[in-house]
Amino acid sequence: MIPRAGRDTGLETRMPPVSTDGGSQAAIGYEPRSLRELRPEQWRSGLAAWLGWLFDGLDMHLYTLVAAPFVMELLGAANPADPAVREKSSWIQAAFLVGWALGGGLFGRIGDRLGRSRALSLTILTYALFTGLSFFATAWWQLLLFRFVAALGIGGEWAVGASLLAETWPKSWRPWIAAVLQAGVNIGILLASLTVYLMADLPPRCVFLVGVLPAFLVFWIRRNVPEPGEWRRARGEEDVPGVVALFGPGLRSITVKTILVCALSLTAWWAFMFWQPQHLRNLPALLGLARADRERLVTLAFFLVIAVSIAGNVAAGWLARRVGYRRALATGFLLGFLAMAGAFGAEREPRVLVAFWLPAIGFASGVFGLFTMYLPPLFPTLLRTTGAGFSYNIGRLAAAAGTVLFGLLAPVGDFRVALLLDGVLFLAAAGVALTMPDPGDGA
């Protein structure tokens, strides 16, 4: 049975009083007005989730930035435009996204059954270990396997970390918490960009050794981050409902709409993130550059996209406070569509793409930060990481297929038209977002 599933579909989850086991304050009508009023366990939970997300971003995008040169090395190919490089690199990325989706469901279930802190430790250990093992790959299928298992941890960390903060930090702060968490991911991606930039003269595989660092965070989490009081109380009172309950009365509509909006938007974003570096590499103006110089320019473009997205996270949080989550999501996706149309609707010079259009897409992507605090409270406590992880990460299965499909649509060495079509998915996501509920709207 689902505790309180029928009441507002879980949107208005009650927040119990603060306790030494990681509870929260909202149920007694009090919420901190400043950071100084937060309790130590709230600070530790916030730091654990933020660092987990930072390293998530680091390990997630090390491959994205070195995909073509690393797969070239594994295949013994001569240049990044080789069809075999395109095919194998897209399959590796697709395997990563499938693993990400499955990891969200797997570790989401573990988070509901064993606790948020324990599950968070397991996710971080998984993605750190298998990112490091990518260094030792000697064939493309080995890299595919290592990226798949690393993705299980990365996908699981999203649902677990988001639920941990939703249950420990003040409810009214959620839009800003979402912006800060997503900024952690983006800072991690910037660190990945910096790593690849500084190591451009080394073999591409070397960057994966940096991905081992998050493993050391696990020891601190296990000693210092308690399980949230809300989860402890719910776990003591009720059995954990089965996954099928997500499609039962009162939750079916929420689950289906969440899957749709995530599938559309994540496919649009990940196809862009994976194929726009390949698009830049194959622009005629850049083909004459030395490999290291070309890779530094591609990395710089990637860096700008993510750096600007941090400002987008803050803007999305500000907008959500004023117009609600669903309107803020729809606005961000609409901006993403317009920026993609501007970037790829016509042939652009590399400097114009890098200086304006790609950062504009990055700014619009700040809207993804809202998922962090918006999705978990849509589900009851003992279905929170399961529901958020399943609904959000199943969208990555669509993103995996989309990554391969858009690569197949592209002529050899030309990804512009495929990226233009990809942007239309943002427009569809905006339409679905407008049908989603806001906390307080009811089901």
List the SSEs and their pairings:
Elements: H1 40-75, H2 83-114, H3 116-133, H4 140-166, H5 174-198, H6 217-224, H7 229-237, H8 252-281, H9 291-323, H10 325-344, H11 350-364, H12 371-374, H13 384-409, H14 416-433
Helix pairs in contact: 1-2, 1-3, 1-4, 1-5, 2-3, 2-4, 2-13, 3-4, 3-6, 4-13, 5-9, 8-9, 8-13, 8-14, 9-10, 9-11, 10-11, 10-14
Labels describing this entry:
Growth Hormone, Chain: A, globular, disordered N terminus, mainly alpha, 443 residues
Description of the molecule:
- With 443 residues, the chain is mainly alpha-helical.
- The chain has one domain (39-433): MFS general substrate transporter like domains (Growth Hormone, Chain: A).
- The chain is built from 14 helices and no strands.
- It has helices spanning 40-75, 83-114, 116-133, 140-166, 174-198, 217-224, 229-237, 252-281, 291-323, 325-344, 350-364, 371-374, 384-409, 416-433.
- Helix 1 (40-75) packs parallel to helix 3 (116-133), helix 2 packs antiparallel against helix 13 (384-409) and helix 9 (291-323) runs parallel beside helix 11.
- It is globular, with a radius of gyration of 21 Å.
- It starts with 39 loop residues before the first helix and ends in a 10-residue tail after the last helix.
What is the β-strand count?
Answer: 0
Helix content: 55-70%
Contiguous runs where pLDDT drops below 50 for at least 5 residues: 1-29
Helix run count: 14
CA-atom Rg in angstroms: 21 Å
CATH evolutionary superfamily:
MFS general substrate transporter like domains
This entry's quaternary arrangement is: single chain
